């Protein structure tokens, strides 16, 4: 299950973040803004509870988020999306999964994990700007499910059909939200046209 957020405001920012002339400061700002838009959509079915609030005029029946939300950035590029989602749900808990793609095999290697216990019963939102082969996302979902998580969504900025298929095959219950489903992967397993190496562009390491 996946959803591409085609809203013009998202697509405008996506054009800017793809641009190779965009430096790391602007890239970070755009990653934050795009994440906010996508997460706004991804959170549309979050469980709410009714509360009564006294306005200056009268009592109002309102709705507030009732779900324990656990945001899980995949290190390191996922951290570039953290401010964006936390500005929407400031009370969310944050867990970390450290993964990198082995240069030769392109398969993920896990080097760190630290998850709050609320991951088991809460809504877990994995964030990573790039879902390329899907290997890293599948590995992160595997880790969350091993901890008992059952309500998992993935938010990325750019993905491609091959990666979506791999996640769908391994975890058909997980909904993926992206700003763009690009054409394909190249021989280095980079998304085409993509936006390059998201971690390097976020942190100015290239
Ligand atoms: C990038 C990206 C994803 C992964 C996607 O991370 O942020 O985690 O690659 O590729 P996949 O879908 O083929 O697994 P990278 O391994 O470059 O590590 P970094 O975030 O530390 O730069
Ligand atoms: N990781 C990235 O940062 N970019 C890609 O296109 C693929 C994997």
Characterize the biggest β-sheet: 8 strands, mixed
Query: Strand-residue fraction?
Result: 25-35%
Unreliable spans are none
Task: Tell me the helix content.
Answer: 25-40%
Rg, Cα atoms, Å: 17 Å
Q: What is the highest CATH level, the class?
A: Alpha Beta
Mean of all residue-level pLDDT scores: 97
Question: Which structural class do the helices and strands define?
Answer: alpha/beta
User: What is the H/E string?
Assistant: EHHEEEHEEEEEHEEHEEEEH
The N- and C-terminal alpha carbons lie at a distance of 34 Å
General shape: globular
Structural account:
It is a single chain. This protein has helices spanning 8-18, 24-42, 82-88, 135-146, 161-170, 198-203, and strands at 2-4, 48-54, 59-65, 69-75, 93-94, 96-101, 108-114, 123-127, 130-131, 151-155, 158-159, 175-178, 180-181, 184-185, 191-192. The protein has 206 residues and is α/β, with parallel strands linked by helices. The chain has one domain (2-203): 3-Layer(aba) Sandwich (Rossmann fold), CATH 3.40.50. A hairpin with a 4-residue loop joins strand 2 and strand 3 (59-65). The longest helix is centred in the N-terminal third of the chain and has 19 residues, at 24-42. It is globular, with a radius of gyration of 17 Å. The model has no long low-confidence stretch (mean pLDDT 97). Bound molecules: 1-O-pyrophosphono-5-O-phosphono-alpha-D-ribofuranose (PRP) and uracil. Uracil binds next to helix 6.
Features:
206 residues; alpha/beta; 8-stranded mixed β-sheet; 3-stranded parallel β-sheet; 31% strand; binds uracil
